[in-house]
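Spend some time on the protein that follows and explain the fold to me:
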Amino acid sequence: MSKQRKQSFLGGAVILAAAVAIVKSIGFFYKIPLNNILNSAGKTYFDAAYQIYNVLLSISTAGLPLALSKLVSEAQARGRENQKRKLFRVAFWLFLGLGVAGTSFMFFGTSIVTGMMNNEGAFHAIRALAPAVFFVCILSCIRGYTQGQGDMKPSAASQVLEAVCKLGIGLPLAWYVINSGLGMEQGAAAAIMGVTIGTALSMLFLASYLLRHRGSGASLDVPDSGGKLVRQILLIGVPITLSNSAMSIITLVDTSIVLGRLQDGLGLTEVAASALRGQYGYAMDMVNLPASFVFPVTMSLIPAAAAALASRDHVGADRIISSAFRVIAILALPCGVGLSVLATPIMRLILPMRQEDALAAGVHLRLLGIACIFICIMTLTNAILQTYGKERLPVFTMITGGIVKIIMNYILVGDPDINIHGAPVSTLCCYMTIVALNLFFVWKYSPQKPRYIRLFAKPILASALMGAAAWAVCGFVGRTLAAGHSAYGANAAAALCGILAGVVVYFVLVIALRIFRAEDLRGMPHGEKIIHLLHLR
């Protein structure tokens, strides 16, 4: 059973990670052109709508789908089919109410929210995104139910559908609106309409899937009462929701403080402050890309580990969690180091129409690349603590880190000599604080104490050597091509060569240092072939 759960966990993580890879590839062809279509002020309007959306989404759906997934997984492990079905029915009405409330607040309270954020230009974008809260609430309910049964394919397909709609509808609409002379405020709203339409179509897709795959097998188990099931969902989900929504709320407040300090403390206009905040937003887009690949691991980790714990298989649960730790260490460290050492070349590569903004964003990305490592580890350690029933601890650590971020931003951004450059400093310190606390609590409450030095030593060494190689190759190619090529062409070639060199060097070091273990790959598709090919133990 432990081996089956291990395979289920890794197989599910691979399916969701593959979906994320596809979604992020599609997102690349959405976000990068969009960042070039919108100027830095328009970028801030777009981000403001997303931040409000993320707060409502976190409150409505962050913890409850995971709670539903965990409870469904436990019911399935015990053969309680009627319990599973009733869990879904109860959860559906709960999510429906949250969706209606969230959409209503976002639509009818737009003026209040934009005033509090010191960002009136985001009004139309927020209104355009409001219906998506309702659609995503229903989506999250169905995803939690199917993932709890170990079926990750519907979630993966719906995520791809969302991304395709965002690209195929939002990007052309934004281009048309801006080229029609309607302005950046309307352009940001048009771009975000693709998200709303995508969530609606994904909801219809998952609802259709669920109707076609309804379980009809007879079962003799007597499900718990609806009230008891609601209490169980809330007992597990609310602390997780608090930990996840705490960071979204703090980010929203933090954005308001940054814009406020730039305007009140430094005397900038709203448009000028939005432009500076937009340059920081360009860099944050790159940081969020690697971190999004951690989410599939946590979504697969919680139900798999919960099923093991429900069967009192503590050894199996520890093996699943240890494997997740190793995978994230192997992936997060090189991504963060690579973004940091190639920060400016990467930003200049992806923002050909906004080279001045790219140079400013590159300065931010040097620090935020390192912050990316801590964001990935934070996401994983939050999930580990939640799996072990310590849902309240991530709430405490996230709030602590958020307070650090808000205080540092208020002080640093308001300093004329530092201004917007204080934002990445506060972000890095925020996530370092959270990760330090999380790692301590994971060590304290894990039955088998994790050996952090053993987990991170080799990936840190390999990432440092990779970063040095990428930096050296990028610099050499850039200097070689500087005389005979355009500035953009030389930088693009240098950045791509640096990235390629980093990938090759890191791959060789992962094999040479034997960073991967056989158990990390055994549950993946074709894992045994890879183990044999690489001679892993």
